[in-house]
UniProtKB/TrEMBL annotation, chain A:
Heme b binds at H46. CDD domains: SQR_TypeC_CybS. Its main location: mitochondrion. Component of complex II composed of four subunits: the flavoprotein (FP) SDHA, iron-sulfur protein (IP) SDHB, and a cytochrome b560 composed of SDHC and SDHD. Membrane-anchoring subunit of succinate dehydrogenase (SDH) that is involved in complex II of the mitochondrial electron transport chain and is responsible for transferring electrons from succinate to ubiquinone (coenzyme Q). SDH also oxidizes malate to the non-canonical enol form of oxaloacetate, enol-oxaloacetate. Enol-oxaloacetate, which is a potent inhibitor of the succinate dehydrogenase activity, is further isomerized into keto-oxaloacetate. It comes from Motacilla alba (White wagtail). A ubiquinone binds at Y58. This is Succinate dehydrogenase [ubiquinone] cytochrome b small subunit.
Automatic annotation (TrEMBL), chain B:
Membrane-anchoring subunit of succinate dehydrogenase (SDH) that is involved in complex II of the mitochondrial electron transport chain and is responsible for transferring electrons from succinate to ubiquinone (coenzyme Q). SDH also oxidizes malate to the non-canonical enol form of oxaloacetate, enol-oxaloacetate. Enol-oxaloacetate, which is a potent inhibitor of the succinate dehydrogenase activity, is further isomerized into keto-oxaloacetate. Its main location: membrane. Pathway: Carbohydrate metabolism; tricarboxylic acid cycle. One of its GO terms (cellular component) is mitochondrion. This is Succinate dehydrogenase cytochrome b560 subunit, mitochondrial. GO terms for biological process: mitochondrial electron transport, succinate to ubiquinone; tricarboxylic acid cycle. It holds the Pfam family Sdh_cyt. Component of complex II composed of four subunits: the flavoprotein (FP) SDHA, iron-sulfur protein (IP) SDHB, and a cytochrome b560 composed of SDHC and SDHD. GO terms for molecular function: electron transfer activity; metal ion binding.
Length: 103, 107
């Protein structure tokens, strides 16, 4: 038989998508640190996997693929770090969106 | 030993690229359909949203002041309601499109 890795990845992608969707009403109804950090994680992972698919589709050649995926890892790590930093030192994602929309 | 499959593939691509043959038009001539357009829009909005989130994150790490500070600066610009509304629309549009189309993909 083969490896189940790809199939599990696919399922993981759908699971994170559903989780992220659920976090949106949660952000509206119960804003706070729990939702803020969950959003940071789900948003980063969903984006990381999504951009990963784009790379898989359009980047060809062993070295370009490796370079692109490494760059993606760096971007995602920075994104997660930045969001957590924002949640900790600033108003947090939920509050920020509420404040922005009240402009 | 005969050549491996990997080696044969590599030779094929090498010869193919060396011959410099043009690529037939595909995207430019194929008749656009709604599913095609929706699919690439889903991808486009996804990439744009992702890059937006990453930009926000990096800004959060690099900029010295807090979010309320910068928001107050924007408020002080005194932009008209029409401009603010358009800006919100432009932010909300890719978000809602990607979200709802995403639900369509999930069900």
């Amino acid at each position: 038989g083969g490896s189940k890795a790809a199939s599990l990845h696919w399922t993981g992608e759908r699971a994170v998508s559903v989780l992220l969707l659920g976090l949106l009403p949660a952000a509206y109804l119960c804003p706070g640190p729990a939702v803020d950090y969950s959003l940071a994680a789900a948003l980063t992972l969903h984006g990381h996997w999504g951009l990963g698919q784009v790379i898989t589709d359009y980047v060809h050649g062993d070295v370009p693929i490796k370079v692109a995926n490494t760059g993606l890892y760096v971007l995602s790590a920075l994104t997660f770090a930045g969001l957590c930093h924002f949640n900790y030192h600033d108003v947090g994602i939920c509050k920020a969106v509420a404040m922005l929309w009240s402009l | 030993m005969a050549t491996t499959a990997r080696e044969e593939m590599r030779r094929f691509w090498e010869r193919n690229e060396r011959s410099g043959r043009p690529l037939s038009p595909h995207v430019s001539i194929y008749k656009w359909s709604l599913p095609m357009a929706m699919s690439i829009s889903h991808r486009g909005t996804g990439v744009a949203l992702s890059l937006g989130v990453s930009l926000f994150s990096v800004a959060a790490l690099l900029l010295p002041e807090s979010f309320p500070h910068y928001l107050a600066q924007v408020r002080a610009l005194g932009l008209g309601p029409a401009l603010l509304c358009s800006a919100k629309f432009l932010l909300a549009l890719p978000f809602c499109y990607h979200g709802w189309n995403g639900v369509r993909h999930l069900v």
